[in-house]
Amino acid sequence: MTSTRTARHFWLPVANGNQRGGVRHAFRGGRWDGQPADVAVCGEHVALAHPSELDWISFPTCGTCSETLKGEA
Ligand SMILES: [Zn+2]
Q1: For the chain, which terminal residue's Cβ has fewer other Cβ atoms within 10 angstroms, N or C?
Q2: Cα of 43 from ligand 1 centre, angstroms
């Protein structure tokens, strides 16, 4: 966590389409600029929307995104 050489990324909860629930993916960049879709660190192309506070709490972290970033650190 002390390394400043790590590429910047941010996390954002992504809803599972019209199903309930979703996953928190990591994305490249400093923050979400409001783009409607992006490619997550794990390679998944997902639609983005403003997450609710409940999304942040209830969506599990994407394991592939997490492992990928860990491998880069
Ligand atoms: Zn992911």
Answers
A1: N
A2: 7
Band of residue 20 on the pLDDT scale cut at 50, 70, 90: confident
* Ligand 1 centroid – CA 21 distance (Å): 14
Q: Where are the beta strands (DSSP E) in the chain?
A: 9-15, 22-28, 37-39, 45-47
Distance (Å) from CA 6 to ligand 1 centroid = 18
Q: What digits encode the pLDDT tens for the residues 27-54?
A: 999 999 999 999 999 999 999 999 999 9
Domains of the chain, residue spans:
9-72
Instruction: Report CA(4)–ligand 1 centroid distance (Å).
Output: 22
Evaluate if pTM is beyond 0.70: yes
